[in-house]
Each structure stands twice: as structure tokens, then as C-alpha cells.
Design brief:
Elements (H helix, E strand, L loop, with lengths): L11 H11 L11 E2 L2 H10 L7 E5 L5 H9 L2 E6 L2 H14 L7 E5 L15 E5 L5 H11 L5 E7 H8 L9 H9 E9 L4 E2 L6 E8 L10 H13 L5 H4 L1 H4 L2 H11 L12 H9 L1 H9 L3 H12 L1
Parallel strand pairs: 2-3, 2-5, 3-4, 5-6
Antiparallel strand pairs: 1-8, 6-9, 7-9
Helix pairs in contact: 2-3, 5-7, 6-7, 8-12, 11-12, 11-13
């Protein structure tokens, strides 16, 4: 493998020149903030522990800053881009700045939320500067759709990074924390300053590293059933689980039955539970149904008594 040219990565002047040539003006609607610092993208690649045998999928490559840094190291890179102009221009940028690696690059022109398959070998890593407005749903979709992804490093809004990596009991622990932990071990992996972006965002950014669970969580409940419990628990996060899960279970009494069967205090709140505890609650949905099935026991008992006489 021949080495890339030293100036292959994009700097601030390169980014602005490319954008001007393409008539691109970053839009808030798509959360576009282009990284203009070569040291930052190389740091992201190092933090992601990208290896020479990795097949990396990148979401939202923009003008190609991170893409080029990934191609320096990875075996292959597939970029998913929704923007028509950016998607059309990226292959030419790769060919011009890193021609010796161009055949290792593939582009998928699509909304990442709708991507169901990728060209070439299955991806082993996901590395992306995710648009702030869709970061969590895109991350969860990619992890769910491509189980071959072992390692993930995403750059997201700092407060989103905090939520994703929050442990149970934290004030910011919530739906993203639990759902990400369903797939992977999650941790904060650093902070990124505003001055490495163009345009500079109004918020700080953070890196989040996710390592796929070597063994998926074992459960008789489906992911959909588990996530339904999680959504219900945090929809009214100030309430006890007995009250918050009443709608999910059919009644507060049914929710209590499921919680007790799962070994979880009905007076606890969702922010205190691990993903494994949410799994146990989902598995005991039948306990939630039982109080309704055993309604009016005195009437049935009376009827049986009359029949026996």
C-alpha cells in the first residue's frame, strides 16, 4: 500500500474553496458543521482505534475531511451522504487528493435512517461526525441494522454525548443511555472545541465510544418489547415506575405486578434502572396481564360455590 501524500487532508482554506466551488452553504436544517482541522480528524481516527483491516462506515461525510483521514488507515471506507451536491462531489475529492486509495472508497447516496445494506464487506466500525438533530436515531439505526459493527466512535453535541454515556442514577440518564447500552458498552471519549468547525456551532461537541457487546443480552422479550418499557418509564420520569408504567401494563396494579415479578421496586424511577432490569420487566409482562385476568375473583368463586352445591 503506497502512502498518501502529506497534504491529502483538508485544511480550512481547502474546505472553503471546495464549498465555494460547489456553491455549498452549510445548513442548520441538516446540522452541517464541517471539520476544518486535520489534527482533529486524525485524533478521531486514533481514538476510534481504526485498524488497517477495518471496513469503516461513515455517516454524513460532508466535504470529506474525516473520510480522507479514515482512508489513510482503514482497509475500506463507505460513506453515507444524504445531500445531493455533497454526495456527487465526494468521489472526485477522494480521487484528486488520495488517488491511490480511491478504489477503497464507496459512496451511498441515501438518508442513513433508511440504509438497510452497504456495498462490499460488512462494516466492522462506525466513525462519524453526526448531525446534531438526528444523532441518536441514526446511531441506534446503524447499530441495529449492522450487527457486524464492533466499534463505534461518534462526534455529537456535548449534552447528547453525556446522555449516551450516562450511568444509571445520573440526572441525564434516559432513553438514549439505555438503548445504546442494549447494543454496546458506552463511554465518553473526549471533547472537541468549537473552533475546529466551519461554521463554528453554538454548542460544544463530545466523542462517544461504543464497543459492541460480545454477547447480546439474553432475554425472552424482543427488543421492541424492551424498548417499549424504556420509552414508557422515561415518558414520565418524575413518576414512580408503578405510575409511569400504568399505561404500558394496562393499570397501575398490573405495572406493580410486573415490577415485583421482575424484582424491581414499584417505587423506583426509570433513571435508577440498568438495561438488564428493563429487560426483566419486559419479560414479566404476563405478570402485568394477570391482575386483569383475575378480575372479580369473588364473583367466580361464588359461581363455583353454587355449582358445587
Amino acid at each position: 500500500m503506497s502512502s498518501p501524500t502529506p497534504d491529502a487532508l483538508l485544511g480550512p482554506a481547502d474546505i472553503r474553496e471546495l464549498a465555494a466551488a460547489l456553491g455549498v452553504r452549510p445548513t442548520k436544517q441538516r446540522g452541517q458543521n464541517f471539520v476544518i482541522d486535520a489534527n482533529t480528524v486524525r485524533r478521531i481516527v486514533r481514538t476510534a482505534q481504526v485498524r488497517p483491516d477495518d471496513v469503516v462506515v461513515e455517516v454524513g461525510p460532508g466535504l470529506g475531511s474525516l473520510t480522507l483521514a479514515l482512508l489513510e488507515v482503514a482497509d475500506r471506507v463507505t460513506a453515507v451522504e444524504i445531500d445531493d451536491v455533497l454526495a456527487a462531489a465526494l468521489p472526485a475529492t477522494i480521487a484528486a487528493r488520495m488517488p491511490e486509495r480511491a478504489e477503497r472508497f464507496a459512496l451511498v447516496h441515501s438518508d442513513a435512517m433508511h440504509v438497510a445494506e452497504l456495498p462490499g464487506p460488512p462494516p466492522t466500525a462506525l466513525v462519524a461526525n453526526l448531525p446534531y438533530n438526528v444523532a441518536v436515531p441514526v446511531l441506534l439505526h446503524m447499530l441495529d441494522t449492522f450487527p457486524s459493527i464492533e466499534r463505534t466512535l461518534v462526534m455529537v453535541q456535548s449534552e447528547v454525548a453525556d446522555r449516551l454515556a450516562a450511568p444509571p442514577g445520573s440526572k441525564v440518564y434516559g432513553v438514549p443511555s439505555v438503548k445504546a447500552n442494549w447494543y454496546a458498552e458506552v463511554k465518553r471519549a473526549g471533547a472537541i472545541g468549537r473552533n475546529v468547525f466551519w461554521p463554528a456551532p453554538n454548542v460544544d461537541s463530545g466523542l462517544v465510544a461504543l464497543t459492541r457487546r460480545t454477547e447480546p443480552i439474553r432475554t425472552t422479550a424482543s427488543k421492541r418489547e424492551v424498548f417499549a418499557v424504556v420509552d414508557a418509564a422515561f415518558a414520565q420520569r418524575r413518576k414512580t415506575l408503578r405510575a409511569a408504567l400504568a399505561g404500558w401494563a394496562g393499570s397501575a396494579a398490573a405495572a406493580e405486578a410486573a415490577l415485583v415479578a421482575a424484582g424491581v421496586s414499584p417505587q423506583a424511577r426509570g433513571e435508577a434502572l440498568t438495561v438488564e432490569e428493563f429487560v426483566r420487566i419486559a419479560e414479566h409482562k404476563e405478570a402485568a396481564d394477570r391482575p386483569r385476568e383475575s378480575a372479580a375473583p369473588s364473583t367466580r368463586s361464588a359461581a363455583r360455590s353454587e355449582e358445587s352445591e
